[in-house]
UniProtKB/TrEMBL annotation, chain A:
<feature type="binding site">
    <location>
        <begin position="53"/>
        <end position="57"/>
    </location>
    <ligand>
        <name>a 1,2-diacyl-sn-glycero-3-phospho-(1D-myo-inositol-3,4,5-trisphosphate)</name>
    </ligand>
</feature>
<dbReference type="InterPro" id="IPR003164">
    <property type="entry name" value="Clathrin_a-adaptin_app_sub_C"/>
</dbReference>
<feature type="region of interest" description="Disordered">
    <location>
        <begin position="659"/>
        <end position="690"/>
    </location>
</feature>
<dbReference type="Pfam" id="PF02296">
    <property type="entry name" value="Alpha_adaptin_C"/>
</dbReference>
<dbReference type="InterPro" id="IPR016024">
    <property type="entry name" value="ARM-type_fold"/>
</dbReference>
<keyword id="KW-0653">Protein transport</keyword>
<feature type="binding site">
    <location>
        <begin position="7"/>
        <end position="8"/>
    </location>
    <ligand>
        <name>a 1,2-diacyl-sn-glycero-3-phospho-(1D-myo-inositol-3,4,5-trisphosphate)</name>
    </ligand>
</feature>
<comment type="similarity">
    <text>Belongs to the adaptor complexes large subunit family.</text>
</comment>
<dbReference type="GO" id="GO:0072583">
    <property type="term" value="P:clathrin-dependent endocytosis"/>
</dbReference>
<dbReference type="Pfam" id="PF01602">
    <property type="entry name" value="Adaptin_N"/>
</dbReference>
<protein>
    <recommendedName>
        <fullName>AP-2 complex subunit alpha</fullName>
    </recommendedName>
</protein>
<keyword id="KW-0813">Transport</keyword>
<keyword id="KW-0472">Membrane</keyword>
<dbReference type="InterPro" id="IPR012295">
    <property type="entry name" value="TBP_dom_sf"/>
</dbReference>
<feature type="domain" description="Clathrin adaptor alpha/beta/gamma-adaptin appendage Ig-like subdomain">
    <location>
        <begin position="754"/>
        <end position="871"/>
    </location>
</feature>
<comment type="function">
    <text>Subunit of the adaptor protein complex 2 (AP-2). Adaptor protein complexes function in protein transport via transport vesicles in different membrane traffic pathways. Adaptor protein complexes are vesicle coat components and appear to be involved in cargo selection and vesicle formation. AP-2 is involved in clathrin-dependent endocytosis in which cargo proteins are incorporated into vesicles surrounded by clathrin (clathrin-coated vesicles, CCVs) which are destined for fusion with the early endosome. The complex binds polyphosphoinositides.</text>
</comment>
<dbReference type="InterPro" id="IPR002553">
    <property type="entry name" value="Clathrin/coatomer_adapt-like_N"/>
</dbReference>
Length: 1063, 202
């Protein structure tokens, strides 16, 4: 075979092949790319032949895995060459180098269309091929009609028509609207009468795509498919060239049967009968033959026939025939057939009545679980998983556990997950379940997610008879020399809760338990230590009478962790230490965990069937219902006359039930609860969490700039209560129903909203019946918000509905809100937010509930629905681009600003997470702030803001905002304007007392010295330049020194500043 | 020197392998060249990410076709789904790693991310097709063989070197064989005749 006739190309390929190593190859490629680039630059001297040669070379280089980021234009331009050789190269290289998303392709649409509608058959083929391979939506819209014409044209050769069929298929996949169903159904049916097998194969592919979308419309094609199948199966009128190892086009047979699987049933009895005849013949007539290819082809048809039989839900006899066949396949040595046998048996499980016959093959399937080929092992695992039910769960799960110790890494995760699911789903008894999960953790702890061990804890907590067993088991595992951290967690938790049940057994005294758990402490990570601390506290509590030695040991540990850097550990250490000194009261505080709400649907049903009318009982039932919402419920089950303090959990496992005994008020105040004097409601104390949050937020960011540095990436969460449809200012009540008793919100909603703009948590809405709190936590553009819905009354709130209407720029996902909030309970509903791009729109929370009045007036069932609209939005700030010009940098004079001392404004900025950078601007009347804005579109974007105030007239100021994104700049500027013009009356929460006037004492140089991090300095420097301050950098011993110059440059800046007030 | 270099990197003797006929017929003496192993990008991300969010999973079609030799050099790559270049490189690297060390006694199917790769080895070349997991595996397996038979017929006893120096012809043949991720023509005769027509035009 001649080497392509292109000498240059062959020489190049030889050169590449002669390169002794990768580096040389790269050198050769780079040289060639440079050569091609220069040749393409002065395109005039390029002959079509040369162009063609270079484009081929580019494709070759691209194929070797190098980036070819130029020359796309040349490849595309070859498409419009008049002669075939060049055109062909253009089409082929374009369809290899580009994909449908490349803009260059648009340039070619016209040429391609001309080729398709032109007379030249070869050009038609080239164009159809390229469109079929990489055509996108735009091609679909502009070319589909022409392609359809070619497909049904009688003057075209089959060669063109088969390409047209597949090209149309591609366009249809890109945009299903391009095929007009009404007009096309008959044409499609006609196409299936085609004699030419090539065209028929392509048309059948097209049909499969069409029916997979809409089988009803193509009903008339069904008998035709059966006909095609019959023709092939009987080998009638099939040219020799279309038989493959004696089998009439196995591919077309497979395709036809695939198409038939998209029709739900076959109603026409004749059609059905002839189809079943064919299927029967395939099922019975396929033998294992020696020739691999023939064997494969025959089995390809056979497996497709099996799938069709399963789909058609054939008679029992045929089904059992299929199961028998599959049973034979899973035992053969030929790996492909065995693999497919297992795979199809898994599919077969969907069909009823065959499970039992499949179970007979269990032993065989378990052998395949140990096959050396991972593909087969995966199929066997899937099948075992699918065929597992109560009768064989024990065997299968034990088999999986046994296999787990030898299984390779790639499968362990799937294995352990499946074993855990099966164990939970089909556990014959709960102790077995606990055994299985503990074994799982022991053997593959890395793959046991927290959910799984949480579940064990739930089961054990809820089943008293299981507790001693589980505790004993956990104790056993602790004796092992090296155990997985998850095992430490689960055993520590279980022993903390239930070890007192074992007290009489040898080796299970509180002290011994403590010692063996404490041994593990040095080996665990910070996430486990809090659990261990809880365990210690519980052990201490259970040691009655107190053992002074143990007490001292544990107190010493608490003391040690009181100064731990991890907030969670520290808090627990401090709290447990304080609590454990309370003496007997501790018994109540650290009592056993209350039962977890049940998840089993069976239990919920039972609860629903039983008619319960008392509030307490229904609360239990409702608690069960809330399960689905994965909401955490903290209920106080005591009557309303006692103080009902509930303690919001620090973590899911530290839920502490506080009974209403005397003297617990002080305990709760040590915790996070805030008991209101009238005892009506438990409210989240916004202070502690918000500080924690801030700490959390700042923690990982510390590397970017030292505290107080110019660039402090920050994020801001702002919640807003928007307007109400009824346009009543500030009133968020929409009375619905016959009784228009409206619910008056407590407090001004707008004020609440503005307050929430400044902090991460607080009360969003409150009325006599309900209180909605919100807590936000942001990690870059991901926000985790929690809505706290608290029922303030002694009867449940019904028909609770919450709907978040997000603006376009936020993606929000509210987890299910329970339909009912039990009396005096608080429900937490997590809300996940993703900020896509900067915008000032706020989200609206549409919230409604029904309140059936309590026993005082049982006859009147007045319904009140109140809606509060919450909005949650966020924005943030700062800058990184080297040059900021409009629209990246915007400046505006804002008037009518509420007069505010500079220090207070600085405070306000800080609470928006706009970090004031003192000292960047030598003018003490100016504020410079920076922040980082996170969103999907902008990623982390630095933003800078400068406020220039006029000491003479505090009602106006000039604001300059810059960031790397025009939209962000604009939105931020508008947001700041809004905030500055309508500063709420009480902009600061109780936590934010007026801080020392940071900005006023700003010295031009001293804070700058605080910049030690070069990155921060660099960023700060840009911001200087950007804000009109000339900076110079000098490299002193490799470190940057930033000098702020005054004099001329500043003078040129100041006049502007002064000019403003005159405007 | 070249030889020792090659031996150092590979335990197999593959000096002549790209002259080996793919369908195992007699060897022809073509020029001898030492193939150096290719080091692809590091396996930083071998995790099975859900990569194909851009297309509907219910569509059954060939996602891509790869021809790679044992060292991972790509001899032909055709993508029927829009992937970025970096993703293509990653896919090529991962598929090669997935198939190259599999025992010949194993199945010809491997799960790849959310899809399945049907591969077949001929001498030192791996032909891999990526298809939907519910597609008919054996049909695609034989489709690979048919393609190889066509190549063998066209190049008369094809070997890897033919495919290297005539890669553009291989693309042409493939375009006559598969289009839009679907089988277009299953007659060897029809494709060979068509290639003859096209050769005349050049």
């Amino acid at each position: 075979m001649a080497l392509s006739g292109m000498r240059g190309l062959s020489v190049f390929i030889s050169d590449i092949r002669n390169c002794p190593n990768k580096d040389q190859e790269r050198l050769r490629v780079d040289k060639e790319l440079g050569n091609i680039r220069t040749r393409f630059k002065n395109e005039k001297g390029l002959t079509p032949y040369e162009k063609k040669k270079y484009v081929w070379k580019m494709l070759y280089i691209y194929m070797l895995g190098y980036d070819v980021d130029f020359g796309h234009m040349e490849a595309v331009s070859l498409i419009s060459a008049p002669k075939y050789p060049e055109k062909q190269v253009g089409y082929i290289v374009t369809s290899s180098l580009l994909n449908e998303n490349h803009d260059f392709l648009r340039l070619a649409i016209n040429t391609v269309r001309n080729d398709i509608i032109g007379r030249n058959e070869t050009f038609q083929c080239l164009a159809l091929t390229m469109v079929g391979n990489i055509g996108g939506r735009e091609f679909a819209e502009s070319l589909a009609a022409d392609v359809q014409k070619l497909l049904i044209s009688s003057s075209c050769r089959p060669l063109v028509r088969k390409k047209a069929a597949l090209c149309l298929l591609r366009l249809y996949r890109k945009n299903p609207d391009v095929v007009n169903i009404d007009g096309w159904v008959d044409r499609m049916a006609q196409l299936l009468d085609e004699r030419d097998i090539g065209v028929l194969t392509s048309s059948m592919s097209l049909l499969v795509a069409l029916v997979s979308n809409n089988h009803e419309a193509y009903w008339s094609c069904l008998p035709k498919c059966v006909k095609v199948l019959e023709r092939l199966a009987r080998n009638q009128d099939i040219p020799q060239e279309y038989t493959y190892y004696g089998i009439p086009s196995p591919w077309l047979q497979v395709k036809a049967m695939r198409a038939l699987q998209y029709f739900p049933t076959i109603e026409d009895p004749n059609c059905r009968r002839s189809l079943f005849e064919v299927l029967q013949r395939i099922l019975m007539g396929t033998d294992v033959v020696k020739n691999v290819n023939k064997n494969n082809a025959a089995h390809a048809v056979l497996f497709e026939a099996l799938a069709l039989v399963m789909h058609l839900d054939a008679e029992k006899e045929m089904m059992s025939q299929c199961v028998a066949l599959l049973g034979k396949f899973i035992a053969v040595r030929e790996p492909n057939i065995r693999y497919l046998g297992l795979e199809n048996m898994t599919r077969m499980l969907m069909v009823t009545d065959v499970q039992d016959s499949i179970k007979r093959h269990q032993a065989q399937i378990i052998t395949s679980l140990k096959d050396p080929d991972i593909s087969i092992r995966r199929r066997a695992l899937d099948l075992l998983y699918g065929m597992c039910d109560i009768s064989n769960a024990k065997d299968i799960v034990e088999e999986l556990l046994q296999y787990l110790s030898t299984a390779d890494f790639a499968m362990r995760e799937e294995l352990s997950l499946k074993a855990a699911i099966l164990a939970e789903k089909f556990a014959p008894d709960l102790s077995w379940y606990v055994d299985v999960i503990l074994q799982l953790i022991d053997k593959a702890g890395d793959f046991v997610s927290d959910d799984i061990w949480f579940r064990v804890v739930q089961f054990v907590t809820n089943n008293e008879d299981l507790q001693p067993y589980a505790a004993a088991k956990a104790r056993e595992y602790l004796d092992k020399p090296a155990i997985h951290e998850t095992m430490v967690k689960v055993s520590a938790y279980l022993l903390g809760e239930f070890s007192h049940l074992l007290a009489r057994r040898p080796g299970c005294s509180p002290k011994e338990i403590f010692i063996i758990i404490h041994e593990k402490l040095p080996t665990v990570s910070t996430s486990t230590i809090p659990i261990l601390l809880s365990t210690y506290a519980k052990i201490l509590m259970h040691t009655q009478p107190p053992d002074p030695e143990l007490q001292n040991q544990i107190w010493a540990i608490f003391n040690k962790y009181e100064s731990c850097i991890d907030a969670e550990i520290q808090q627990r250490a401090v709290e447990y230490f304080a609590l454990s000194r309370k003496g007997a009261a501790v018994m109540d505080i650290l009592a056993e965990m209350p039962k977890f709400p049940e998840r089993q649907s069976a239990l919920i049903k039972k609860a629903e069937v039983a008619e319960v009318d008392s509030a307490d009982q229904s609360a239990i039932k409702l608690r069960a219902q809330q399960q689905t919402s994965n909401a955490l419920v903290v209920t106080d089950q005591h009557s309303a006359n006692g103080p009902p303090p509930t303690v919001p959990a620090v973590g899911p496992l530290t839920l502490v039930k506080v009974p209403s005994t005397s003297g617990n008020a002080e305990h709760t105040s040590e915790g996070q609860a805030l008991t209101q004097p009238n005892g009506t409601l438990t409210k989240i104390d916004p202070q502690t969490p918000s500080e924690d949050l801030l700490g959390d937020l700042l923690g990982p960011l510390a590397i970017e700039g030292p505290p107080g540095a110019a660039v402090q990436p920050q994020q801001n969460a702002v919640s807003e209560v928007g307007g109400v449809p009824s346009a009543v200012d500030g009133a968020a009540i929409v009375p619905v129903g016959e009784y228009s008793n409206s619910v008056q919100p407590i407090g001004n909603i707008n004020e609440r909203f503005y307050a929430l703009c400044l902090k991460d948590s607080g009360v969003l809405y409150e009325d006599p019946y309900i209180q909605i709190g919100i807590k936000a936590e942001w990690r870059a553009q991901h926000g985790h918000l929690v809505l706290f819905l608290g029922n303030k009354n002694t009867s449940p709130l019904d028909s609770v509905q919450a709907l978040v209407l997000p603006p376009a720029h936020l993606k929000m996902e509210l987890s299910l809100v329970p339909e009912t909030i039990p009396p005096r309970a608080q429900v937490q509903c997590p809300l996940e937010v993703l900020n896509l791009r900067p915008s000032r729109d706020v989200a609206v929370l549409d919230f409604s509930y029904k309140f059936g009045e309590c026993e005082a007036s049982p006859s009147s069932s007045s319904e009140q629905i109140s809606s509060a609209y919450i909005s949650v939005c966020r924005r943030v700030l700062s800058s990184m681009e080297i040059s900021f010009r409009p629209p990246l940098k915007l400046q505006e004079v804002v008037r009518g600003v509420r007069p505010l001392p500079l220090a207070e404004m600085a405070n306000l900025f800080n609470s928006f997470r706009l970090m004031i950078c003192p000292g960047l601007d030598p003018n003490p009347n100016n504020l410079v702030a920076s922040t980082t804005f996170y969103s999907e579109s902008t990623r982390a974007m630095l933003c800078l803001i400068r406020i220039e105030t006029d000491p003479a007239d505090r009602t106006q100021l000039r604001m300059t905002v810059a960031s790397g994104d025009p939209m962000l700049t604009f939105e931020l500027k508008e947001f700041m304007k809004e905030q500055l013009v309508s500063i709420p009356t009480a902009p600061h929460g109780p936590t934010a007392p007026p801080t020392p006037p940071v900005a006023q004492v700003a010295q031009p140089t001293s804070p700058v010295k605080a910049l030690t991090d070069p990155g921060a300095m660099l960023a700060a420097e840009w911001s200087f330049e950007d804000f009109g301050l000339v900076t110079r950098k000098k490299s002193v011993n490799g470190s940057f020194l930033v000098l702020v110059m005054d004099g001329q440059s500043l003078a040129s800046f100041r006049p502007n500043n002064k000019a403003e007030p005159n405007k | 020197m070249h030889d020792s270099h090659a031996r150092f990197h590979s335990p197999f003797s593959f000096r002549n392998f790209n002259l080996t006929s793919l369908l195992g017929r007699r060897n022809r003496e073509k020029r001898k060249k030492v193939q150096c192993p290719r080091f692809t990008e590091s396996a930083r991300n071998s995790q099975f990410l859900f990569y194909y969010r851009s297309f509907d999973l219910s569509i059954r079609m060939i996602r891509f076709i790869l021809l790679q030799n044992r060292q991972g050099k790509t001899r032909l790559a055709k993508y029927y789904v829009p992937l970025e270049d970096s993703e293509k490189h990653k896919v090529e690297y991962e598929v090669h790693r997935l198939v190259v060390n599999r025992d010949p006694k194993f199945t010809n199917f491997v799960e790849f991310r959310t899809h399945k790769v049907i591969y077949r080895r001929y001498a030192g070349l791996f032909f891999s097709l990526c298809v939907d997991i519910t597609d008919n595996e054996l049909a695609y397996l034989e489709c690979i063989h048919l393609f190889v038979e066509i190549l063998d017929h066209f190049f008369s006893n094809v070997c890897e070197l033919d495919l290297v120096f005539n890669f553009h012809k291989v693309y042409l043949i493939l375009d006559e064989f598969i289009l839009a991720g679907e089988l277009q023509e299953t007659s060897k005769k029809a494709i060979i005749e068509r290639m003859g027509e096209l050769e005349k035009l050049e």
